[in-house]
Every structure is written in C-alpha cells, then in structure tokens.
C-alpha cells in the first residue's frame, strides 16, 4: 500500500474556502497512492474555536463534498482528516471521514476524547461513543481479496492506549491518527505515536497540521511508523507531503514472530487490598 500524508499548514491568513480548494487540488495530485490522509480539523484549524459554529457542516457539506470529488478524481482512498460536524440535533462533533476511491462515504468517526479540560473543544463538542474500524478493499496484504483494516482515532485519543487496544482487538492493522497537536508537546506526539505502533504491532499513520492558528503553533512531524516501531517516514515542521510504501503482510508476521499480543493476560486481578500501603 502506498500511503501519502498531507501535512497541511493551517494559518489564519488563508480563508477556509481557499484552503479547501488548495487541499482538494493536493489530493488530486496524489493519484497513484492507495491511501491519502489529512490532519484533524484542517478546514478551520483545531484551535480556531471561534470558527467552529460558523463552519460546522453535515457529512454532505462543502468539505466532504469537495474531498469526495478529489478522491474520486485521483481514485484514492481518502481519510479526509476531520471536520466540525453539526448533527441533526445541533450538537457539534469532531468527525473524521473516510471516502472510497469512487468518492463514496465509507466511514466516519466522532472523536471520543475531547481536548481542553472542560474548555475549547471539550466544552463545545459532544464526544463520540463508537470505536470505529473500516476495511479498505484493494489495499495492503489483502489486495485483491478483502483489503486492510484501518482503526480510526483523532489527536488527543493518542493518549488513551485502551482505545487503540480495542481497535487492535477489532482487527486493525493500520492505525490512522489525524491531529492538530501543539508544537509545545511535540515530544509527546512523536513518542506516543511510536508507542501505539509498538504495543499494537500495527502500522501508524500520524498526520498533523503545520502552521499557527488560534495562537497555537502546530507540531508538524507527521510520521509513518511500521509494526516494529521504526519510523519509515517523517515530516519536518512546515507543510509537506509524506509518502511511503507499506508492506501490510508485516503486521501478521511481526505478531507471529514476536507474539506479545498472544501473551496478553486478559482480566487482570484487582489490586491486592492494602498493597499501596505495603
Ligand atoms: O494531547 C495533547 O497534548 C494535544 C491534543 C490536542 O491538541 C487535540 O486533541 O486537539
């Protein structure tokens, strides 16, 4: 599978509409890749809270429509990062969408762990309630059969390993993580993305924004990490396109050769009473 991560610069001197057109044209240029990935909330910026209401959209709104057309034109699977979704009851969600090579909506995922400690996204948005995997027919080790299973998570979710373990249990071989991670915690971004690859023995596609918006400089440093934890491609701090060829057969091979997932002890006992005081 050839994967391309588009580390988009999200700056305030570009309008949402202009960025949408620019990103659509970048997606169209990725013909030849199997899977293209965009960052979290790239239309507005993950920290541009004042734009969330104005640019909230349904999943047939302007961003998803433009991305669907671009995916179909390039004939690629497109993880279109996330958008501010307005649900029928008016609730806003940070929702990732996956579009097929024909432009059809194949899956969506509402970010479960909202960032902001009761402010920002955590105050403005509802939290997702579903663990989401999506099968990408025509890609990976299963090419020609049933394709790769991707597990979806977004930005702050990266800090919650239990979500990724559930994705692995649901069959994920590839973990796709769009983000708008702040530069001031870049070390956490790179460390945790690698940890999720090692502990789940899965490929990780971690796609962050670049630029600065809402007063928050973005971390960049998008990464493609293999199931052994090796970083096979890494971006710098500016807008960049990162492309790598993934050998999805390495997921099953790594899990068979070094079978830590098999060695899990499920249902660990409760802590021994009083152990803390011993
Ligand atoms: O966990 C972090 O440090 C950053 C998370 C974040 O920026 C987000 O989820 O939007």
From TrEMBL:
Family: Belongs to the carbon-nitrogen hydrolase superfamily. NIT1/NIT2 family.
Domain CN hydrolase residue range list: 1-248
Record-linked InterPro entries: C-N_Hydrolase (IPR003010), C-N_Hydrolase_sf (IPR036526), UPF0012_CS (IPR001110)
Name of the protein: Carbon-nitrogen family hydrolase
PANTHER family: DEAMINATED GLUTATHIONE AMIDASE (PTHR23088:SF27), NITRILASE-RELATED (PTHR23088)
UniProt keyword terms in alphabetical order: Hydrolase
Signal sequence residues: none
A Pfam family this chain is assigned to: CN_hydrolase
GO MF: hydrolase activity
């Amino acid at each position: 599978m050839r994967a391309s991560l588009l580390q988009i610069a999200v700056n305030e001197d570009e309008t949402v509409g202009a960025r949408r057109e620019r990103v659509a044209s970048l997606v169209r240029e990725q013909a030849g890749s199997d899977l293209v990935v965009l960052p979290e909330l790239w239309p507005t910026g993950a920290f541009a809270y004042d734009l969330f209401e104005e640019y909230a959209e349904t999943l047939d709104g302007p961003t998803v429509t433009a991305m669907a057309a671009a995916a179909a034109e390039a004939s690629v699977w497109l993880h279109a990062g996330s958008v501010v979704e307005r649900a029928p009851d008016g609730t806003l969600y940070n929702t990732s969408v996956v579009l097929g090579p024909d432009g059809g909506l194949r899956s969506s995922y509402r970010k479960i762990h909202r960032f902001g400690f009761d402010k920002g996204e955590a105050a403005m948005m509802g939290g997702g309630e579903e663990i989401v995997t999506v099968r990408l027919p025509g890609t990976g080790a299963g090419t020609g059969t049933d394709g790769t299973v991707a597990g979806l998570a977004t930005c702050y979710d990266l800090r919650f390993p239990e979500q990724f373990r559930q994705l692995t249990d649901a069959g994920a071989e590839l973990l796709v993580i769009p983000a708008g991670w702040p530069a001031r915690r870049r070390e956490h971004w790179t460390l945790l993305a690698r940890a999720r690859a090692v502990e789940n023995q899965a490929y990780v596609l971690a796609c962050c924004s670049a630029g600065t918006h809402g007063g928050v400089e973005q971390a960049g440093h998008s990464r493609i990490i293999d199931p052994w934890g090796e970083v096979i491609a890494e971006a710098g701090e500016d807008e960049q396109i990162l492309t790598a060829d993934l050998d999805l057969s390495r997921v099953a091979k790594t899990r068979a050769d070094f079978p830590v997932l098999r060695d899990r002890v499920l249902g660990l006992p409760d802590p021994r009473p009083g152990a803390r005081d011993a």
